[in-house]
Specification:
Layout lengths: L5 H8 L2 H4 L5 H14 L14 H9 L7 H8 L3 H17 L3 E6 L29 E5 L6 E4 L15 E2 L2 H8 L6 E3 L2 H7 L2
Antiparallel strand pairs: 1-2, 1-5, 2-3, 3-4
Helix pairs in contact: 4-5, 5-6
Length: 196
């Protein structure tokens, strides 16, 4: 289980020690929220989820990004135990993923200097005119679409897409009023794959 903290490994192996019952995604979610509230959402908490985990779940599963990671997993795997196991599989994948930079969007004029993803303990949807510049289009697998990331590699929420996962360049361009004038393609073959 490389990539998971010892605490997450322990929960995965023996969930009953933490909430008195077997593997259950909803119990895990309540446990994590309670733990994080108790730790005051410290980013270095051993149970802090990556700030882009919901985007990763949406990207890997194709689930509706109107949910958070918990809702997305249960929308695909309604069985709490199966969803629990899928959570840990996706968390491990996230820890070992390697991004492929496909393109970047620059000079779009929708940057708000007050917006700083590093100050947020969790992703928060931001307005259509509050986008970082540049925006990187990053793929990690052969799944459809890509994640929009900042220069630090964080996904970010945006208008009508709170987790930063997009099905295609055309979907992103239409939603955020981007044109190909804003686009610098870095990997032409991979860019063609993520086109609508």
């Amino acid at each position: 289980m490389a990539g998971l903290s010892a605490f997450f490994q322990s929960i995965r192996q023996r969930p009953g020690l933490y909430w008195g019952d077997g593997p259950n995604l909803s119990y895990l979610q309540v446990f994590l929220v309670g733990y994080q509230m108790g730790c005051r959402s410290e980013p270095d908490s051993p149970l802090a989820l990556p700030n882009d985990f919901s985007g990763w779940v949406a990207y890997r599963t194709g689930a509706s990004s109107t949910y958070n990671w918990h809702g997305m997993l249960l929308s695909i795997w309604p069985d709490e135990e199966e969803a629990f196991h899928q959570f840990f599989d996706l968390l491990e994948e996230h820890a070992s993923r390697k991004g492929r930079l496909v393109a970047k969007v620059t000079r779009h004029g929708k940057f708000n200097i007050r917006y700083d993803i590093t100050d947020l303990p969790n992703l928060t949807p931001i307005g259509k005119d509050d986008l970082p510049d540049p925006i990187f289009l990053t793929t990690y697998t052969d799944d459809p679409g890509f994640l929009a990331t900042t220069s630090e590699g964080h996904t970010f929420g945006a208008w009508r897409n709170p987790w930063g996962n997009w099905k295609s360049w055309e979907e992103m361009a239409a939603a955020l009023d981007f044109t190909e004038d804003h686009l610098e393609i870095l990997d032409p073959a991979e860019f063609e794959r993520i086109r609508g």
